[in-house]
Amino acid sequence: MYDPITMKLNADPLILSALKEDITSEDVTTNSVMPKACLGEADLICKEEGIVCGLDVFARVFELLDEEAEITFFVKDGDPVANGEKMAKLRGDIRVLLTGERTALNYLQRMSGIATYTHSVAKLLDGTGIRLLDTRKTSPNNRIFEKYAVRVGGGNNHRYNLSDGVLLKDNHIGAAGGVTAAVLMAKSYAPFVRKIEVEVETLAMVQEAIEAGADIIMLDNMAPDVMKEAIQIIDHRAEIEISGNVTKENIEKLKGLGVDYISSGALTHSAPILDISLRNLHPIK
Fold this sequence. Notes:
Elements: H1 4-22, H2 28-33, E1 39-46, E2 50-51, H3 55-65, E3 70-73, E4 80-81, E5 86-93, H4 94-123, E6 131-133, H5 143-152, E7 166-168, H6 170-176, H7 179-189, E8 196-200, H8 203-212, E9 216-220, H9 224-234, E10 239-243, E11 261-263, H10 266-269, E12 276-283
Parallel strand pairs: 6-11, 7-8, 8-9, 9-10, 10-11
Antiparallel strand pairs: 1-5, 1-12, 2-4, 3-5
Helix pairs in contact: 1-3, 3-4, 4-5, 6-7, 7-8, 8-9
């Protein structure tokens, strides 16, 4: 998933924060039944079909609790998994396996759910040349994990954060005094390597964005007939993105319009988890 530097600098602090959220002083239940160290094993079992994602993060939870914890994976990120499939075997201090179980599963279930849902949406765009994009509608402090899951599922990442690129949305345009003013101000301020994307809601805004020199035009929540007219107005003078409540259920009607990108917040904010469990925990000698 991540190289060692990325893991230590970006992922580790977030994983540690999640563990601290779950353990404010001690795991009182585990310490009640397991007062001393005891070596044990457990199986990671998938309970429904999907695309697995987040195995490195799952493992890292236990490694941060005990560097001697051992995990053997039988699958890798991006693999399809089936109900009842054994995906890994964990070996280590039973206290560590019990204490880290929920945090590790929360990451793995969430990331696998996003990868699974993204995969199902991306398949609907096969052969169209349209790139499926995510958005910034991610869980706070989980963006690094959720956007990775989108890529594993076959989607693409839109800008990672506000420092990544210029996207002039309705309130930016309102603050600037109009589309033209917003684009000109962005061209003056932003580094020249940054593309300028403008979110538009009307045909008049489309025309203004083209004349102002926008690089990408996002057609936001437009009716299909209005989108078709907007695409004709743009006439290949800018890249085109469609956005606005795009889901697996309605993306089919968008794929024949001849656009470059379709973005969907649902990839991260509405994907159900993939049901995965840690089972068969037992002491070993």
